[in-house]
């Protein structure tokens, strides 16, 4: 629907109003390991936290991300890139 505003026989502005308002998307929401555990994390702890997001209803409320903030790395390669601690994290 388009509404036109007239004032003294002159068109002042055009305003577009959609027929149906669109639903707003939720912001990106998640959990961060850093807030509680700092660098003291391992695969078991991260999996437990992800499971807790689901069992507590946070997933249904829109929480989708587990941010492994720090402590997942074992060191840096020759190019300076971080690599994961294969012993404690990111195993299949």
Can you describe this structure?
Helices cover 18% and strands 32% of the residues. With 92 residues, the protein is of the alpha+beta class. It has one domain (22-92). Strands 1-2 form a two-stranded antiparallel ribbon. The longest helix has 13 residues, at 43-55. The radius of gyration is 25 Å and the shape is elongated.
List the helices and strands and how they pair.
Blueprint: E1 2-7, E2 10-16, E3 29-32, H1 34-37, H2 43-55, E4 63-67, E5 73-76, E6 82-84
Give the oligomer, counting copies of the same chain as homo and different chains as hetero.
Answer: single chain
Order of helices and strands: EEEHHEEE
What's the end-to-end separation, in Å? 53 Å
Q: Specify the structural class.
A: alpha+beta
pLDDT < 50 runs, ≥5 residues: 1-7, 9-13
Which outline best applies?
elongated
For the largest beta-sheet, the strand count, sense and barrel status come to: 2 strands, antiparallel
Mean pLDDT: 76
Proportion of β residues? 25-35%
Number of domains: 1
**β-strand number:** 6
Helix percent reads: 10-25%
The spatial strand order of the largest sheet comes to 1-2
Q: Helix count, per DSSP?
A: 2
Gyration radius from CA atoms, angstroms? 25 Å
């Amino acid at each position: 629907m388009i509404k036109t505003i007239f004032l003294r026989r002159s068109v002042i502005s055009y305003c577009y109003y959609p027929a149906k308002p669109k639903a707003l998307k939720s912001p990106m929401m998640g959990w961060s390991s850093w807030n509680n555990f700092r660098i003291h994390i391992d695969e078991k702890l991260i999996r437990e936290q992800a499971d807790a997001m689901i069992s507590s209803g946070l997933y249904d409320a829109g929480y989708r991300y587990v941010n492994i903030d720090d402590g997942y790395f074992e060191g840096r390669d020759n190019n300076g890139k971080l690599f994961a601690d294969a012993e404690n994290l990111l195993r299949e």
